[in-house]
Specification:
195 residues; EC 2.1.2.2; GART; binds glycinamide ribonucleotide; Rossmann fold; alpha/beta; 7 strands; purine biosynthesis
Length: 195
């Protein structure tokens, strides 16, 4: 797989740790980012190649995404994982990889899509939230769900505290889900057809 990140990359790290075992049936061929993200250090540590394609170097979103796609495709991955990749990808990018493009999101979708899911859940007074791993479609966090896990929101919990607890569950679910895809226990074509 190729993993795309924007930030600290703790989900990436969980995948790198898992893939370090010969018993784990998936490998990370490269890590990409839209900025010189801190999380790229995890790739360096594991000797995994990385690339940065920053939108600020391009005239349009489309031109940026085309270069990002070229970098991804160079590695000929069977799966592309958005693990904290905080940009919306144009339809051409999504279509080129679909359904082998998945995203992990810190809420129980369809609740709280977008870039501020944890904040939005607390603001809405929700008592439960979680993680959704889904196939990426052309909308924002609207693609078919592959796996979800829920979590109670504790009274008085801050956004940071809740997000850290979500990420503990998220890392586990992502590692399990990618393995299930690699072992063909989950068929992304089928997931896309059903929804
Ligand atoms: C994760 O919780 C991921 O679900 C979220 O960013 C975090 C990245 O953490 N993504 C989104 O909110 C996308 N809408 P990490 O960099 O430590 O893996």
């Amino acid at each position: 797989m190729v993993v795309l990140i924007s930030g600290g990359g703790s989900n990436l790290r969980a995948l790198l740790d898992a893939a370090d075992s010969p018993l784990y049936g998936a490998r990370i061929m490269a890590v990409g980012a839209d900025n010189p993200a801190d999380g790229l250090a995890h790739a360096d540590l594991f000797g995994v190649p990385s690339f940065v394609v920053s939108p600020s170097n391009f005239d349009s979103r489309e031109a940026w995404a085309e270069m990002l796609l070229e970098n991804v495709n160079f590695f000929k991955p069977d799966l592309v994982v958005l693990a904290g990749f905080m940009r919306i990808l144009p339809a051409e990018f999504v279509r080129a990889l679909s359904p082998k493009l998945i995203n992990t999101h810190p809420s129980l979708l369809p609740n709280f899509p977008g870039a501020h899911a944890v904040h939005d859940a607390i603001s809405a007074g929700a008592t439960e939230t979680g993680v959704t791993i889904h196939v990426v479609d052309e909308g924002v966090d609207t693609g078919p769900h592959i796996a979800q896990r829920s979590l109670k929101i504790l009274p008085g919990e801050s956004e940071g505290e809740l997000h850290e607890r979500i990420k503990v569950v998220e890392r586990e679910l992502l590692v399990e889900t990618v393995l299930a895809i690699a072992e063909k226990k989950i068929d992304l074509n089928q997931v896309s057809k059903i929804s």
